[in-house]
Amino acid sequence: MRKRLLSEGAKELSYEIREIVKKADQLHDLGLPIHWENIGDPIEKGCQVPAWIKDILTKLVNENRSYGYCPSKGVLKTREFLAAQTNRIGGAQITANDILFFNGLGDAIATVYGLLAMTSRIIGPSPAYSTHSSAEASHAHTTPITYRLDPENHWYPDLEELENNIKYNPNIVAILIINPDNPTGMVYPLEYLKKIVDIARRYHLFILCDEIYNKIVYNGARAYALAEYIEDVPGIALKGISKEYPWPGARCGWAEYYNRSLDPEFDLFCRAIDNAKMIEVCSTTMPQLTIPKVLGDKRFAAHRTQLNELIGRRSSIISEILSEVPELNFNPTYGAFYNTITFKEGVLSNTQTLKIENPLIREKVEKWCEGVSLDYRFVYYLLGATGICVVPSSSFCSELQGFRVTLLEEDEDELRNVFSTMRDAIRSYVKSDKNK
Ligand SMILES: Cc1ncc(COP(=O)(O)O)c(C=O)c1O
């Protein structure tokens, strides 16, 4: 090529949640059955979408308008419905014009970070859902700026570190909150959210809040929506149907802009996001048409409650099995459907192994382990020895050594079996250290 093709930021793009699949597939081809604990797709794990939701879709499939483009910002009736839902909370008030539809939040995230000036930064949690941290790093052509979620304190954010980072880095223009959180399963207490809003107000920042798991809470938790606590600070909430219906294959999510009239520069930013979608024409029409019918249906709340109870039950089973392992930092979860479990400091080493009978699998795992961080090493051995596929926590923009699991296994016996096998593997892995 006459000139370099790739932008500097491209090397920051990585998504281990799917990368690990390539490795697991190689082992599967060698005859190893895989237990997928890597990806947050309830459908893949056997969750059944209720018949009444499928009926709504079937009717729409038979309507001709479902096949057309829709307005660039999204179907007007749907945006009116969503604006009314948000306004009912009683906090920030919006109109249909403050809502913009995307082809899933993946699209929204790429657009929002992509339009930021290269030197302007959004500080995000660590660990963080990698789509955010990769997009931020890619736009800035450097590593992300983060604040720590503390595994020793229920994964709540270290607010002092957050404020110090903001104070000493004038390029930070916004704070990212993921609530409920992926990958930790933590739900932010209201007092923390209010303190974050206070920091944003004092340093003239906006808040970007990913609320894709807003309705997925259990074990008595409540997830507060940004609209409820943002008061007079500019903000963008990101919402979607991937996890709530669940319908991740719909590729449908939306952004809600709060308080844009209070800050002209923030308003311009929101307009630019709208314009970017206009250039693309619009997002997928049919999933948007389902929203008032599904979220407005009396059966939806009961449907979500039932699914949440099941996730809460799985969360308790996993706690029962893993919380007693002394080498782990284990936090029970309250929202979303993940848990990140870390090893206590000094537990992992680069000589630990698990027994792998098949020599071809062993050879591959040994090769993959060359020069990788200690949590990747554990994850590869766990995969090779047991077929359990989890995601290393250092791939979530974090230095913590651990791994993320999902809480999606529908079959309770299989769930107990997978997590008991994992516990036993952890025990033998940490004891296998030749140097101890
Ligand atoms: C926190 C978070 N935000 C956004 C997404 C992406 O959602 P979508 O399916 O709408 O692209 C995910 C998917 O796992 C997620 O966990």
Quick synopsis:
The chain is of the alpha/beta class and 436 residues long. Helices cover 42% and strands 14% of the residues. The strands form 3 sheets. It has an 8-stranded mixed sheet with strand order 2-9-8-7-6-3-4-5, with helices on both faces. A 4-stranded antiparallel sheet has the order 10-11-14-13.
Tell me what you see in this structure.
- The protein has 436 residues and is of the alpha/beta class.
- It has two domains: 8-47 and 301-431, Aspartate Aminotransferase, domain 1; 51-295, Aspartate Aminotransferase, domain 2.
- It is built from 14 helices and 14 strands.
- It has helices spanning 16-29, 51-61, 76-89, 104-115, 130-140, 159-168, 190-202, 226-229, 264-280, 285-295, 299-322, 359-368, 374-386, 412-431, and strands at residues 35-36, 99-102, 121-126, 146-150, 156-157, 172-178, 206-210, 235-240, 253-258, 328-329, 338-343, 388-389, 391-392, 402-406.
- The strands form three sheets. It has an eight-stranded mixed sheet, sandwiched between helices.
- Helix 4 packs parallel to helix 5 and helix 12 runs antiparallel to helix 13.
- The protein is globular, with a radius of gyration of 22 Å.
- Bound molecules: pyridoxal-5'-phosphate (PLP).
- The site of pyridoxal-5'-phosphate has 14 residues, from helix 4.
